[in-house]
Amino acid sequence: MQIHCKYAGVKGFINLYEYALRYSYMITDKAKFKAKVLSFRAKHGLEATLDAFPVKRSTLFLWKKKLTDNQGKLEALNDKSKSPHRKRQRITSKRIEQFIVAQRTEHPGLGKDKLKPLLNDYCLKENIISVSESTIGRVIGDLKEKGLILSNAKVYLSGKTGRLIVRKPSKKRKKIRRKNYQPIKAGDLLQIDTIEKFINGVRRYIITAIDLKSDFAFAYGYSTASSLNAKDFFEKLTNIAPFEIARIQTDNGSEFEKYFREHLAQEKIIHFHNYPKCPKMNAYIERFNRTIQEEFINWQRELLFSSLERFNRKLIDWLLWYNTKRPHWSLGLKSPLQYLVDKLTPEKSNMLWT
């Protein structure tokens, strides 16, 4: 039986649908309000618009001009950055910097709170204005970047060569947060987590993933929670998922670093991180973790620790049932696969045979 879409053959429908998906999350609520006002003005006239909305005549013409100059693109109505073009720069006396360098060179562990009274005495003698404790901290940071004072470093003994190796502290990487982003279609956002099981001195790890729109889920068991295994899991997930993955969300576990992070960067997939100690941000995957443990893992504990290979084979069978037959309340008592079939785009639905 061939499945037909009622929009098949409608000229321009696919382009309009893709355009709406692309720009729906790039336009702010304020820009949508401005577009609504301009649409009201085009339909009902200027005087009716001024009575209906708390905007000025000049503001309406300014919005209209922005829209016209950008060929009708609604992103032109987004608010521009209001930060100043020229920002204030901190100016610190060279003598104060030299004093801090001298003190930190002689006493490397001296902090800004201890430097403050010493600097006050020095400034009083030199008849110059002292600076605050927070400014001293920022000056120390600047001097470290310039290499004028030493940074804290850990020293350890190499077991292979017997030499002392200085390990410099790595710079903190800025992590992307999900904030208010909401997925539009399947594959836009998946949450990934790790379940840890421990019995008789043996640990096992099951990495899990779920799509927020379709509830399509995947899981696989490993003996260690390494970033290499997490990368292997994501490659398996990519191969079996019936959609393209655009974004993922994880906690700050070490298994989601290094090889896993490098693989995501190579595939150009956005990686959202939760805030520390905030599992409620991963509510979907936490709920799936409970489901998979209650319905499968807890009944296969012996197999999980005795034969991980056989456990994974049974796990795949359970996932096939979960994704193709098990009804989900969140999907209107449909299975994830049935939900995906019902949501297929017109172009794909014309090529699908069941």
UniProtKB/TrEMBL annotation:
Position of the signal peptide? none
Integrase catalytic domain span: 179-344
Q: Which InterPro entries match?
A: Integrase_cat-core, RNaseH-like_sf, RNaseH_sf
Pfam family name, one: rve_3
In Swiss-Prot or TrEMBL terms, this protein is called Integrase
Transmembrane regions listed in the UniProt entry: none
Q: One biological-process term from Gene Ontology?
A: DNA integration
Tell me the GO molecular function terms.
nucleic acid binding
